[in-house]
Every structure is written in C-alpha cells, then in structure tokens.
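Session log. Operator J.P. requested a structure for one protein chain; no other inputs attached. Running the standard single-chain path with token output.
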Amino acid sequence: MLFRGQDASLFRMGVAFRYGRAGRFLMRLVLGGLFVFAGTAKIYDPATFAIELERYQLLPWKICAAAADYLPWVEFLTGLCLSLKSFERGALLLITLLLSVFTLALASALVRGLNIDCGCFGHTFASTGTILPILRNLVLLLLAGILWTKYR
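Structure written below.
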C-alpha cells in the first residue's frame, strides 16, 4: 500500500477534490455553453423568437417583442460569464432564475394544452414540443444546483 492511515485519507481527499473541480468545470462549461448557444441562435432572428414567445399566451405582444430583443443577449452574456468564471455567482443566479421561469412557462403551456415549440434554440433544431424541454430544463436545474453547493 502506497499510503497508510491519515496519509491515505489525505490522498483520497486530494483526488476527490481534483475530480470535484474537474466535474464542476465541465458542468459550468455545459451549462454556460448551452446558454451561449441558445442566445446566439435567437439573436439573429428576434422577430421569429417574439412569435414563439407570444404562442405561450402569457404576455402581451409588446412585451414579447421587447423580450425577444433582450433575452437572447442576457442568455448569451450569462452563459459566457459562467463559462469563463467571470461574475460566476451572478451568472449562476441568472441562469437558475431563467431556467426556472422557462420551465414554469413550458409547464403552463403543457397544462393548458398548447401545442407549441419551446423556442429554446430558435429554429436550430426540429420542434421538440414541451415535455422534452421540461425534462432537459430539470436536468440543467440539477446541474445549477450542484454548482450552487460550492457557495454553501
């Protein structure tokens, strides 16, 4: 055995710490990268994104149009900040709030029987309906929750 007693437990803690840091790094890249991608996909066509927002039937058209102009930039910048670990806590807070709001909006559409595309990635992918994006958002919220444990 290479290490004995207390030395072995310190070695195991060091390995766990290294893998924990690598895991957090990957989670930050995945979560941040998805938001950068989602924001970029919608920045180029805010009119189509405004129509997607209006299909949720939660907000008036003027607010949907304004949100379509600004929300993709918020997604892009928060994803970039999280990926680059700049303003990490603020970016993580915004991403958690955005994911929560998006999930509630999707659940609302599902309960009301609206047959809509989530609009999450613009028209980059085929229509995914509402159930798959809700499940994806729940997994992303789990990742965000794991990242939040660093700040306990």
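Operator note: The helical segments are 6-43, 46-54, 61-84, 88-111, 131-148.
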